[in-house]
Specification:
Length: 560
């Protein structure tokens, strides 16, 4: 029995080797089946011609012969290459690197325009219909070592409200697009990595349609905390056939000359929050993450200590407001009119030259509302009309042309009391006037009337009524059925009714004053000058009794 046990124990390694060999054969066979299925899927994706089928089979054989990814390969995410041509060229030029591409276009968008929606060189490492400003929602954190930005912002069509791409507002929109893409992309880095910018050479860029806009992307990335280093990739190594990008929402019939001079700039980048000045932070959505305010205010007065760098932008903005609370009170608080206007205080520092790349250009203040109803319409990023709506990028922006809302207690003066008294007959006829859903304690930069539907404020009720009869208001009211019965509309109509009552009370007061003044004049001059009082109560129309002012009056209407 012992000898039998020893023999079985000695045979265990042989049995284990045989089992391992069988397992290996099984997994290899399963991998072959998997590769065959993948090849079959590629063959049945609508590629009907023999050339595409042969190419698919060749790709499947290549996948069987070589693994799809190497554990030690550097992983790089490419953004901005919407037709995936340049990403495929990078992969062919640098096979030791594992490139992954993300495009805002769907597979149908690419296939219908004769682009390969799944280039063989990328080995299925493609994400379609992706919003690049929210790329952190598509991949797990710490998924990549580097990022590549390929002509960021230049593939999108120019909004019709903007007109052309040679305006400073185009540079503003492109700079903010790069900022939001960088903010989201940094969350995917494993740690300190590299950002590679594929961008035209400066002289070539000046000859492009957007050359006069003032695009300065290398300087912008340096301002956002990226440190430029020696280039890690070479644009000359990529095949020229792969440099055929979508430009300004169109597929060019031939590559523009200004694109031939592209260069690849490399920057060191980390996954820490991006520091921006307060003047720029005030333009951003307060719920953004991975954004920090440069040179935050220290603890002051009722303000708490500065929030942590990882805190939301809203908390940091609140801290800055509390630190300036006393100055805000001095500017917007109640003031004696005899003291004159309040002095202008330096609440927010003016940006330096490099910081102004993210600031609103002066051109925005010269845009008419008929031309651009809101700046946010210039911050829409779309390539094709048939692009999936979920992939149309829209960046929230504050329109500086709109009045600023200042919250302050509403003053109750004699005019308001008179207006409420003048409403009494209206209430008696149509019932008591409804109360506001919330107190009216907001003033929009001397604009008394504010429409929450269109975000438009006017100084007078007449202009608000004219606005409500316009096309913009009617169009938005039609697309928002709940507006007609909303509390906001009821509050707006209440404001208009109160203003009408105030005007009615003022008019009645003026008429009463004018009537009293006329009565005083009549008592002093008598009835001699009036046609009705000078007839002595009779109907005789003789010249002596008409009292046309020729006779003298004794003050009681009797002629002498």
């Amino acid at each position: 029995g012992c000898r039998r046990a020893d023999a079985e124990f000695a045979a265990l390694p042989v049995i284990e080797d045989r089992l391992m060999a069988e397992d290996t054969a099984y997994w290899e066979e399963a991998a072959d089946y998997s590769q065959e299925d993948a090849g079959y899927d590629q063959e049945t994706e609508g590629m009907a011609d023999e050339t595409a089928v042969a190419e698919s089979e060749t790709t499947a054989d290549a996948k069987v012969a070589t693994p799809q990814s190497k554990p030690s390969a550097k992983k790089v995410l490419v953004l901005g290459d919407e037709n995936l041509l340049y990403s495929a060229g990078l992969q062919e030029s640098y096979p030791e690197v594992e490139f992954t591409a993300a495009t805002v276009l769907s597979r149908l968008n690419l296939d219908s325009r004769e682009f390969k929606s799944m280039p063989p060189a990328l080995q299925n490492r493609v994400r379609h219909a992706v919003d690049p400003t929210k790329i952190d929602k598509q991949f797990a954190p710490a998924s990549f070592d580097d990022l590549v930005l390929f002509l960021p912002g230049l593939s999108f069509a120019v909004p019709k409200e903007m007109g052309t791409s040679d305006r400073p507002i185009f540079a503003y929109r492109t700079h903010h697009f790069v900022f939001h893409v960088l903010r989201a992309g940094k969350q995917l880095l494993k740690g300190e990595g590299h950002l590679h910018l594929v961008w035209p050479e400066e002289t070539s860029l000046m000859s492009s349609p957007c050359g006069a806009a003032g695009l300065e992307l290398p300087q912008l990335l340096s301002f956002l905390g990226c440190r430029q280093v020696e280039a890690k990739f070479s644009a000359e190594k990529v095949n020229s056939d792969n440099l055929w990008p979508i430009v300004f929402g169109e597929v060019p019939t031939e590559v523009p000359e200004w694109i031939h001079g592209v260069q690849i700039h490399s920057f060191n980048v980390d996954n820490k929050p991006i520091e921006i000045p307060l003047c720029v932070a005030l333009q951003l959505h307060p719920d953004l993450s991975l954004v920090s305010i440069k040179d935050p205010s220290p603890k002051s007065g009722g303000a708490a200590s500065a929030p942590a760098a990882s805190a939301p932008l809203k908390a940091k903005l609140i801290h800055e407001a509390l630190a300036r609370k006393e100055k805000l009170k001095e500017i917007y608080g109640r003031k004696d009119s005899s003291n004159g206007e309040a002095p202008i205080l330096d609440l927010v520092k003016e940006p330096v030259a490099q910081e102004s790349l993210l600031c609103m250009p002066l051109e925005a203040f010269m845009l008419a509302f008929e031309e651009v109803p809101h700046i946010a319409q210039c911050m829409k990023f779309q390539i094709f009309d048939d692009q999936p709506p979920v992939t149309v990028v829209t960046i929230a922006a504050v329109d500086p042309r709109m009045p600023t809302r200042v919250a302050r207690p509403a003053s109750v003066g004699p005019a308001t009391a008179t207006a409420m008294g003048a409403l009494t007959p209206v209430q008696a006829a149509a019932g008591p006037l409804r109360k506001r859903s919330r107190p009216k304690d907001e003033e929009w930069g001397e604009m008394k009337f504010y429409c929450p539907l269109t975000k438009i404020a006017t100084p007078t009720a007449e202009k608000m009524r004219a606005h409500m009869s316009g096309d913009l208001y009617k169009r938005l009211a039609t697309s928002n059925p709940g507006w007609l019965t909303s509390e906001d509309k009821k509050d707006l109509m209440l404001d208009l009714e109160i203003d009408a009552a105030e005007e009615q009370a003022k008019r009645a007061k003026r008429e009463a004053a004018a009537g009293g003044k006329g009565s005083a004049k009549g008592k002093g001059k008598g009835d001699g000058k009036s046609k009705g009082g000078g007839k002595s109560g009779g109907k005789n129309k003789s010249k002596d009794e008409k009292g046309k002012g020729k006779g003298k009056s004794d003050g009681k209407g009797k002629h002498k």
